[in-house]
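Students often ask what a holo structure prediction actually looks like on paper. The answer is less mysterious than it sounds. You provide the chain, you provide the ligand, and the output is a string of discrete structure tokens encoding the 3D arrangement of the protein together with zinc ion.
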Amino acid sequence: MQHAPLIDHHCHGVVTKELDRTGLEALMSESYLPPPTGTHQFQKPLGLAIRRHCSALLDLEPLASADDYVARRTALGSREVSRRLLVAGGVATHLIDTGHRSGEISTPEEFAALSGHAVREVVRIESVAEEVAASGVSAAEFPARFEEELRRRSRDAVGFKSVVAYRTTFRIEQTAPARSEVIEATGRWLAASEGRRPRLADAVIIRHGLWAAAGIARERRMPIQLHVGFGDPDVYMHACDPTHFTDFMRFMEAWGVPITLLHNYPFVREAGWLAEIFQNVYYDVGAILNFTGASSTRVMRDALEMGPYSKQLFSSDAFGLPELHYLGVVLFRRALSQVLDEWLRAGDCGTRDVEEISHAIGHGNAARIYGLA
Ligand SMILES: [Zn+2]
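The corresponding structure tokens follow.
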């Protein structure tokens, strides 16, 4: 089967400075802390997947040892490793979230130059709020300045992203807050973050950001991405079940704003169900295929269990390491084709269906909702 071109609808830049083993391993985990003494990050499915699939691109035998892999990576240097892995991934277009640790990773321009692929930007709502708060704005000026900045920053972007689940969980009020409430909450936030970089975790201000972005997204027909489940360690996982955010999805359905649910682990079935029920809900299992490695086909099987294939999207959610970009592609293609082969062999679909499903999930759905050619 010929591979359809891919749109990676949610990913981040790569680290361009040289990485030692500690730096490399830190980017193989979403944890804040290193693994316990005497253990390392290659001792899990992601580590095996890197050794199996990335070694050959670094001129090593598949499943080269972690020590050999790190030594070869160091000898080649970060830029060369990034170039090899990003080019080999062969993604047509990357939609890059520029709001997470942006000082440590490549800019979209650097990323496009390294990979030779097209790049578009997704604006992270909470990062814009934090930048506006740090600019010396007063609480009374904040709501309007924040909206203005969202509008300005998203002019050439293709979507917004929110990390509301990380910051407050999904178990919050989901209506638009009154301006007076936003000003009051901002006053408290600015006073509490005096002298430090303000980190937004206030539900009222985050709701204001979501609704302000939604207004812009409605005008410009852009999706809002919502982080779900697996990700940073600052989550209370049980409260990051996306079904807690049903009211907001329903409001956005009335506005015609697509909501794309990212990662969704371990709520893959919930995400598939939401996509089945709501006209405007889309979902992916990005990042999860990388972290489940050898078992990633099972995750894809769950993702395809009920969700319409006109609603599923491809993403790597790679951050920092080009290995994660490359694996995102390899494991996605493998998992999808293994599940569709099973369906084909069972007579549950035909070869034309397999092509249609692969194209829709890998490219067509994202092209349609993000307005990409
Ligand atoms: Zn991400």
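The longest strand covers residues 118-124.
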